[in-house]
Amino acid sequence: MQRTVRRTSLPVNKQKWNELNRLAEQYAEEKNIHVRVFNSGRYFSVCRSDRTRRDNLVKTGYVSHLQARMWKTALKDGYETVVKYHAGQAVSLRQKVGRKDWTDNQKRYAYWLSYTSSRIAGFLSGNAPVPEHFRTEYQERKPVINYLRRHARQENGKKPSVKSARSVCLDSDMYSVFVHNGVQYIRIMGLIKGKRIVIPLTGSTPIKGNIRIVLDKDRQRIEVHYTAEIKTKKLMGKPCALDAGITEVFTDESGNRYGTEFGKVTGNASESLKVKGRHRNRLHQIYKKKKNKNIKKFNLGRKKQKTEKKKLRSEFARQINTATNSVARKRKPAAVITERLDIRGKAKSKKMSRLVSMWTRTILNDRMEFKALAEGFCHKQVNPAYTSQTCPFCGYVHKNNRKGDMFQCLKCGHADVSDRIAAINLLARYNDPEITLYTPKEQVKSVLDRRFIAGWKAGNSDCSGQDFNPAAKPGKERNCRRQLNKNSGHEHIQLHLNMF
């Protein structure tokens, strides 16, 4: 398995920084020229690879501000940018094709069209290709082409372009690495032939293959991005369920908490956003009334706001990464079960909304997926519906079971921390045949109610003939349930989990 490694530079002088900025600007300009050409669907559809355009330019004696090897790399980088753009279109189109009421031959043609970037570019430009290995009539192809073209243009918006000059791609012949006085340096190709730019780096690790030089203009430092092989492990411990929270990163089914400083960071960030948001709103009102040029010139502090959000995001990523490492080190799980991390829900208050918006699900999901590969455990997401409202002791579901961070069942009285309750229920849904990842919320509630009623009737022989409404307020059933369940809470939870 491979991953991208980021190495940062030591401070560089102003002259060297300016040289790197000029290099990045020329590279971005060169790349953008080729991206605009490849954005032409008719041209891109006949290009087998970036070498088609490269060979044509070499024959015509193309001249660039960059050295020959670098402009060819910029051309290839631009080609890959357009390929990725069309790959994104292909994913969304294939999902729509499966829902269409087309013939099998039409669906086959639609999947064939969206298989390569050149074919997508072809039908977008009005030059849809025709397959040779299976037969399709024009009347079959026409509605497919029109449908795919319309939805591809609607969903993907503007075509790709180079918007900022901050990175340069280099192959293995365009740089060299050496060590001097215990410091590792990288010597990269510049704008002047025979003169390379030397950059001192922090740390010391092998750098090889294609790399990307990225300019961090906020901190005025250089980053070197490259891929490295990661040795994977294989963990053999028991499955572990993790409930992602706001006050801490994770809580497992045993009650262990990971990343307990997370709540303090998110809380401070939330209050800071609230205060600064009010000031920004006042500035907006002043600008609307007085049209103050200075307010417009300094962009209402958006540059500073963007920098602060970037720092916060880095801190969130660090804490999530540390918490995930702690789980792997402490539990050594063969499988980690989490809730589905790409869903959204309406928050009960503005403060909660700010906290949830900063709870970066993308970072959490990416880190968990990477650690699953690196540490050797299986990551499975399960349906989170009602996990924090369901009693794992008796199975009763009610929104009033949970009060903030505490949980107490209205039927059997079982009490615990709500995050731990959620983790226990997530673990119970591991390999649950009735509640899958995409089971609708209403259907989940129906399944849980049915299971509770069945368990209640089975444990109450004197009440088994009576109808029971799980949404009713707790009354005699609560005392009856307490008497019949003589096992301790933890023993009953363990029995409940062993069912799955």
Give a description of the structure:
It is a single chain. With 500 residues, the chain is of the alpha+beta class. Helix 1 (14-38) crosses helix 4 (68-97) and helix 3 packs antiparallel against helix 4. A hairpin with a 6-residue loop joins strand 4 and strand 5 (196-201). Mean pLDDT is 83; it is low at 461-467 and 474-500. The longest helix has 30 residues, at 68-97. The strands form 4 sheets. A 5-stranded mixed beta sheet has the order 10-9-8-11-12. Strands 1-7-6-2 form a 4-stranded antiparallel beta sheet. A 3-stranded antiparallel beta sheet has the order 3-4-5. It has 4 domains: 2-9 and 166-229, no CATH class; 40-156, no CATH class; 240-382, no CATH class; 399-498, no CATH class. The chain is built from 16 helices and 15 strands. The two termini are 32 Å apart.
